[in-house]
Amino acid sequence: MDIKVDNKTIIVFDLDDTLYNEIEFLKSAYREIAQNLEKENWHSLYIKMFSLYRNKMDVFEFIHKHYKVSKSTLITEYREHKPDIELFEGVLETLQNIKKNKGKIGLITDGRQKTQTNKIEALDLTSFLDCIVISQEIGTEKPNLNNYKILESTFGKGTYYYIADNLKKDFITPNALGWNTIGIMDNGLNIHNDAYLYQAEKYPPKVFLSSFLELTIT
């Protein structure tokens, strides 16, 4: 897919499972927690934690029971740790080419301000972003109209694109606003894997891509 970008082009991205796999944030947090609790043998604890997670068990209840650490402390460490995460292949080049062609870049993400900001910084995204909308900061989550209208208020008239992954909430509003919507297909690792429930006309994007390698910015 080719997008022709100029100074009236606004390309807005989702964050989690769009620009990187959110499961890598979880794994990063589990590693840090395991290393703090078992400095010499953290690998075994991490393996157990991740196995419990994949089997839908309460990981933090297990830690609380065996290490006498409160669940609230563990949740805070999970949410506020500095993650070790990486962008999907092709994302950096996409961002660079948008800027090269004078386009604007926005981000709309649901989550806590501290958590999402740590992700943005870990991925070295800050310098590319002209507008960042984090749900906790504004008090509404997608698909609330407010989360998208902030971008229109910031940039004014132009050609808008929204690139995201979650059929349940990401595309309903930008579809209604007349934005060009692009879905990044689940690579088998997405946290939210219930796309089969959201096949009615209002949910899907106009176009699906298997990865950013299928996107060309000119």
Q: How would you describe this structure in keywords?
A:
218 residues, alpha/beta, 6-stranded parallel sheet, two-stranded parallel ribbon, 9 helices, 41% helix, elongated
Written account of the structure:
With 218 residues, the protein is of the alpha/beta class. 41% of the residues lie in helices and 15% in strands. The protein has helices spanning 22-37, 42-54, 59-67, 71-80, 91-100, 113-122, 135-138, 145-155, 172-177; strands at 2-3, 9-13, 104-109, 131-134, 159-164, 180-184, 207-209, 216-217. Helix 1 (22-37) packs across helix 4 (71-80). The N and C termini lie close together (11 Å). The mean pLDDT is 97.
Give me the strand/helix succession. EEHHHHHEHEHHEHEEE
Instruction: Determine Rg (CA atoms, Å).
Output: 19 Å
Indicate the overall shape.
elongated
Strand content: 15-25%
